[in-house]
Design a protein that fits this description.
With 364 residues, the chain is of the alpha/beta class. It folds into four domains: 61 residues; 79 residues, no CATH class; 124 residues, Rossmann fold; 66 residues, OB fold (Dihydrolipoamide Acetyltransferase, E2P) (Beta Barrel), CATH 2.40.50. The protein contains 14 helices and eleven strands. Helix 1 runs antiparallel to helix 2, helix 4 runs antiparallel to helix 5 and helix 9 packs across helix 10. It is elongated and about 120 Å long.
């Protein structure tokens, strides 16, 4: 039995009783000078009580459970720092309003009665807004005071302590996130919503052996992240109502929390960027940190397979970059020295073209 149904029944009963008493009062007033068409007191009570029951049945959730659900949803999204800052700001604003209200209450009416109430609303709002807006500075001051007044950040903390980064399921399964966090280049707190964890568990329990293996690897990566001392990992129960797809929930949640999404999913990347959400893509990071080679440079590679064109050989660097070697088929399964002739950047990554150094020297 849902809470909405219970409150509808209670509201129906309450509004029916209130309507019956109101109808009885109206009936008594109407029957002071009754006419032939005037209803009796009981009829007034029954009709208005029935209308009250109908109104209570329809409107009760909108004044009870619906506002509570909206408040609960808002509180799950807002961070603990923001809630604490808002509470402190409200208290500070009310204190200032109380001090300010005493002298203006001595003004002649109606100013002496209206202005103190306006001051409470104004200073309360200003206090909440100011403290939430400057919460980072406020918590930094308290941290410095607790640490003995030192201006240096605490070990394991820093400028991005309050920054949240949402993790996608694909980036957890990928596994490279664990290595990236160990380098310290990813500041902030890794936030994993419960619906992402549920999807990861669903993949780990899949009847497909390949999907099951990927899901279990994601669980191991997540466990390794939680044990990493240099990184804060938090699993949250925050959710987005009205949506079923995990990607849609992540985008909406990132917009509400104003935080980036860490992923390597191309489709999620495009959808998030179209909606103005910052995306941290591991594949783009991997392409960005690959070694930069210029035409004319010399490098050693091992030809491992044939190319598409006649006489071509193909090799791969340690970072996965493909190297196409002109006339490299005759050096199959051999380590050779080549000269880079061209570097091509494609949507799939970087490709390097070269030719064996001895052939290039012979041509000169």
């Amino acid at each position: 039995m849902s809470a909405d149904f219970i409150f509808r029944i209670l509201g129906m009963i309450g509004f029916a009783i209130g309507g019956a008493f109101w109808g009885k009062s109206l009936g008594i007033a109407a029957n002071v000078n009754p006419t032939a068409s005037t209803m009796t007191v009981d009829q007034y009570a029954f009709v208005i009580g029935s209308v009250g029951a109908l109104v209570g049945l329809i409107l009760t959730p909108y004044i009870t459970t619906r506002p509570m659900h909206a408040l609960k949803k808002m509180l799950t999204i807002v961070s603990a720092h923001s809630l604490l800052s808002a509470l402190v700001g409200l208290i500070a604003g009310l204190i200032v309003a109380a001090l300010f209200s005493f002298p203006i209450s001595l003004l002649p009416p109606p100013f002496g009665k209206i202005l103190p109430f306006i001051a409470v609303l104004l200073f309360g709002y200003l206090g909440v807004s100011l403290f939430v807006m400057r919460q980072g500075d406020i918590f930094t001051i308290f941290s410095n005071l607790r640490g003995g007044g030192s201006a240096a950040p605490k070990e394991g903390g820093g400028w991005a302590d309050n920054r949240n980064i949402l993790l996608d399921t694909s980036v957890i399964i990928d596994g490279r996130i664990a290595d990236i966090t160990r380098t310290g280049f990813l500041p902030g707190t890794l936030l994993i919503p419960r619906f992402v964890l549920n999807e990861l568990q669903y993949i780990a329990d899949s009847p497909d052996s390949m999907r099951r293996q990927r899901g279990r690897r994601g669980m191991e990566v997540l466990s390794a992240l939680q044990k990493e001392p240099a990184m804060q990992v938090r699993i949250s129960d925050i959710d987005v109502e009205g949506m079923r797809e995990v990607d849609d929930k992540l985008v909406v949640l990132a917009r509400q929390m104003r935080c980036p999404i860490l992923t390597n999913d191309y489709n999620l990347n495009r959808v998030a960027e179209l909606q103005g959400v910052t995306v941290l893509n591991i594949n783009e990071l991997a392409n960005a940190v690959k070694s930069v080679l210029l035409p004319g440079e010399i490098m050693n590679i091992r030809v491992i397979q044939e190319g598409r064109e006649s006489g071509q050989g193909v090799a791969y660097l340690d970072d996965g970059t493909m190297v196409v070697v002109e006339n490299g088929r005759e050096y199959m399964d051999k380590e050779i020295t080549i000269m880079v002739t061209k570097v091509l950047q494609t949507a799939a990554g970087r490709m390097i073209f070269g030719r064996p150094e001895d052939l290039s020297a012979a041509n000169h």
